[in-house]
Design brief:
Layout (H helix, E strand, L loop, with lengths): L15 H7 L7 H7 L3 H7 L3 H31 L7 H25 L10 H7 L8 H22 L6 H24 L14
Length: about 200
């Protein structure tokens, strides 16, 4: 069975509900978003109030980082469960690698802003929180992953209206696009019907 690298040392994660429920009311500074995409020159020119906005930005980015840690942990649990068969296991490995890229981008932005990136919890904590002991089949694993992917997509979409610069809002849209793509593939693997109505994400 293909297994994936284990998670990082323990540190409490921010409240997931902040991101899923109210983050759209907060505003990431242009500097924070520019740093996420690795554009330091843009960051230097965008935000004159970086110091004032830094604490809020770091807090928001750490909540997003917590979501990515959770997704990485969920795919790790799926890979180690022995329930995923090829080629589904290969897809899970791919999706986890993309969440690691999201994690690395967020971590880099937080560190460049002088913040401390929240670390992942031990895998056992995710297993308990996600009730991994109830996963008895490949379908169970895919349903859990699909639920997390949809929640993350909606969360990233919820942030977009807070940006004044459409180009910066695109960064959040790109993250949401990855999560939506993941959800779509998982839903198809489960044999679920695609949404019958338009605008089914981000509402």
């Amino acid at each position: 069975m293909k297994t994936l690298p284990t998670s990082q040392p323990e540190l409490a994660l921010p409240d997931r509900r902040l991101f899923l429920g109210g983050l759209g009311k907060a505003t990431l500074s242009a500097t924070a978003v520019a740093l996420i995409v690795g554009c330091e020159s843009l960051a230097a020119n965008q935000d004159k109030q970086m110091a004032a906005n830094s604490a809020q930005d770091v807090g928001i980015l750490n909540v997003a980082l917590g979501l990515e840690h959770e997704a990485i942990g969920a795919y790790q649990l799926g890979a180690e469960s022995g329930l995923l068969q090829k080629p589904v296991l290969d897809v899970a490995v791919l999706f986890q690698s993309q969440h690691k890229e999201h994690r690395d981008a967020l971590t880099g932005a937080i560190m460049k802003m002088g913040g401390t990136p929240v670390a992942a919890k031990p895998l056992g904590d995710y297993a308990a929180a996600l009730k991994a002991d109830t996963l008895k089949s490949q379908a169970d694993v895919l349903m859990l992953a699909a639920k997390l992917e949809r929640g993350a997509a909606n969360a990233y979409l919820g942030v977009i209206p807070s940006f004044e610069d459409p180009g910066l809002a695109q960064v959040s849209g790109r993250l949401a696009a990855d999560e939506t793509m993941h959800w779509t593939v998982l839903a198809q693997a489960l044999g679920q019907a695609l949404p019958s109505k338009a605008l089914s994400f981000g509402a």
